[in-house]
C-alpha cells in the first residue's frame, strides 16, 4: 500500500475544514444557549445533540475520506480547525451571528403576534360566553313539574268525576 503525500495533505485540509465547520455550528448555537441560561436541561440537550452530531460527522469523515481507517493526523487536523476558528474567526463572526439570532428572534416574535392576538380574543370570548351562559342558566333551566292529572271519566266504573284514588286522597287530607 502506497502513501501519497498530496492525498494526506488533502485529507489534512478537509479535516481542518470539518473542524472549522463544527466550530461555526457550535458558535451558531451560542445565542440559543445564552438566551436560555437558566434552563440547564436545554443546555445539556443542545450540547448532547451537538456532540453526537460531531461524532457522527467525524465517523462518516473517517469512513469516506480515511477509507475506513482512523488516522491520527486527521484528528489533529480536526482539532487544529477548531482552534483556528475559535482563535481567528470566532471574534470576527460572533457579532454577525448575534445580529442574525436577534433578527430571527424578532421575526419569530412578529410572526407570533397575530397568533397571540387571536388567542387572547378567543380567551376573552370564552370567558364572556361562559359568564353569559351562567347568567342564562336560571332562565334556561327546564324544571320538571309533577303534573296531577284528574280523570274526567272513570273507565273502570263507568262513572264520571274523580277516581276513587283521588277521593281517598282528598278524604285523608280533611281531618
Mean pLDDT score, rounded?
78
Number of helices: 4
* Residue windows where pLDDT falls under 50 for at least 5 positions: none
Question: Mind summarizing the main beta sheet?
Answer: none
Radius of gyration computed on alpha carbons: 41 Å
Beta-strand segment tally: 0
Distance between the termini: 126 Å
The H/E string reads HHHH
Strand-pairing-aware structural class: mainly alpha
Overall shape: elongated
Helicity range:
over 70%
Strand share of the residues? under 5%
Give a verbal description of the structure:
With 175 residues, the protein is mainly α. 77% of the residues lie in helices and 0% in strands. The chain contains four helices and no strands. The chain has helices at 5-35, 40-64, 72-140, 164-173. The longest helix is centred in the middle third of the chain and has 69 residues, at 72-140.
Amino acid at each position: 500500500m502506497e502513501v501519497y503525500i498530496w492525498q494526506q495533505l488533502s485529507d489534512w485540509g478537509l479535516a481542518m475544514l470539518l473542524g472549522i465547520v463544527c466550530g461555526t455550528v457550535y458558535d451558531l448555537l451560542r445565542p440559543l444557549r445564552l438566551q436560555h441560561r437558566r434552563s440547564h436541561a436545554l443546555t445539556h440537550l443542545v450540547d448532547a445533540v451537538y456532540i453526537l452530531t460531531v461524532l457522527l460527522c467525524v465517523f462518516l469523515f473517517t469512513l469516506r475520506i480515511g477509507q475506513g481507517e482512523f488516522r491520527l493526523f486527521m484528528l489533529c487536523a480536526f482539532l487544529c480547525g477548531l482552534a483556528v476558528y475559535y482563535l481567528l474567526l470566532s471574534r470576527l463572526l460572533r457579532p454577525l451571528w448575534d445580529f442574525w439570532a436577534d433578527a430571527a428572534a424578532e421575526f419569530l416574535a412578529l410572526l407570533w403576534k397575530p397568533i397571540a392576538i387571536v388567542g387572547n380574543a378567543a380567551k376573552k370570548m370564552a370567558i364572556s360566553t361562559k359568564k353569559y351562559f351562567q347568567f342564562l342558566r336560571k332562565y334556561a333551566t327546564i324544571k320538571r313539574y309533577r303534573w296531577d292529572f284528574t280523570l274526567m271519566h272513570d273507565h273502570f266504573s263507568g262513572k264520571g268525576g274523580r277516581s276513587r284514588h283521588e277521593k281517598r286522597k282528598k278524604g285523608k287530607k280533611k281531618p
